[in-house]
Write a structure and sequence with these properties.
By secondary structure, this protein is an all-alpha fold. The protein has helices spanning about 5-20, 30-35, 55-70, 75-90, 95-110, 130-135, 140-150, 160-175, 180-195, 215-225, 230-240, 245-260, 265-270, 275-285. The model has no long low-confidence stretch (mean pLDDT about 95). The structure holds manganese (II) ion (2 copies).
Length: about 290
């Protein structure tokens, strides 16, 4: 894997989060009325963010990445402690499932949430990137096990697992040089074949995607596979509204891994919060050594 693509994946995650957060929970119609096409890192949104500021999608990924670097591997209890520390530091936003299950971990000391088909939100899938980097080159079964270990701290659910594992294997394949067409046929279509909830072709365009992980990936895959560069992909996905910071983050991670650093618009890179940018670059370098 090239350091260029690893950095681009991490910066793409953060940029997608920062871009999408402005229009999170808006409908495409509301976005069009207010911005025409939303295509700049201007902050604002329901969280009243500064331009280039990121939300939980990026900061949870960074917290997870720190725990992996400290342990030398993906470890459920260390991840749970890192997320708990992250929650205590009063993040700008936090998902309901994440909060509920982190409070449960605090009470029980068990870093695995009880199984629930209702915990099918995108909160575990949005933060998978450090797992993809840390387990690059490992046998597929270990990669999948690491995915579930981090995910189950807050989301213990078959659909969330399927999404997390698919995204991690996709990112790793992209970082290894696979084409978008390879990713489509090796990962995205097989996911939809196993779990029809994720079907994204020959279905309606996902508009106003919710935090349900199948809605989220449907929007991400439609934007990612139907555009040809980083900028178009991110603009397409966040202008669908809904959980736009999270679709933006996941799409940004995939697009960064495929298109590389030079495809990321300079204006977006420059506006991304400087501390966030440094943290992403540091983890990309440290975790991406393989
Ligand atoms: Mn968020
Ligand atoms: Mn979100």
């Amino acid at each position: 894997m090239t350091t260029d693509r690893v950095r681009a994946a991490y910066l793409g995650l953060a940029i997608g989060d920062a871009l999408g957060s402005t229009v999170e929970f808006m409908t495409p119609r509301e976005i069009a009325a207010q911005y025409g096409v939303h295509d700049q890192l201007i902050g604002g949104g329901w969280l009243h963010l500064r331009p280039g500021q990121v939300t939980d999608d990026t900061t949870m990924a960074l917290a997870l990445g720190e725990s992996i670097l400290k342990q030398g591997r993906v470890e459920a209890l260390a991840a749970a402690q890192a997320f708990d520390g992250w929650m205590r530091a009063k993040p700008v936003d936090i998902g309901n499932t994440v909060r509920r299950n982190l409070l449960q971990v605090r009470r029980t000391g068990n870093p695995e949430a009880p199984y629930s088909d209702h915990d099918a939100g995108n909160g575990a899938a949005m933060r998978v990137l450090p797992v993809a980097l840390a387990t690059f080159g490992q046998p597929e079964a270990s990669v999948r096990a690491a995915c579930r270990a981090q995910a189950h701290v807050t989301h213990h659910c078959a659909l969330s697992d399927a999404a997390c594992e698919c995204l991690v294997l996709m990112v790793q394949d992209a970082l290894g040089g696979a084409s978008k067409n390879d990713l489509l046929h090796r990962h995205a279509h097989p996911l939809a074949a196993r779990h029809p909830e994720f079907k994204f072709r020959a279905v309606r365009q996902q508009s106003n995607p919710s935090g349900y992980v199948a809605d989220t990936l449907q929007a991400v895959f439609q934007s990612f596979f139907d555009t040809d560069d980083f900028r178009d992909c991110l603009i397409d996905v966040v202008n669908r509204g809904g959980d736009a910071d999270t679709t933006g983050a996941i799409a940004g991670m995939l697009a960064g891994a495929v298109y590389g650093l030079e495809a990321i618009p300079e204006a977006w890179l420059k506006t991304l919060n400087a501390d966030t940018r440094r943290a992403c670059e540091r983890q990309a370098a440290a975790l991406g050594q393989g």
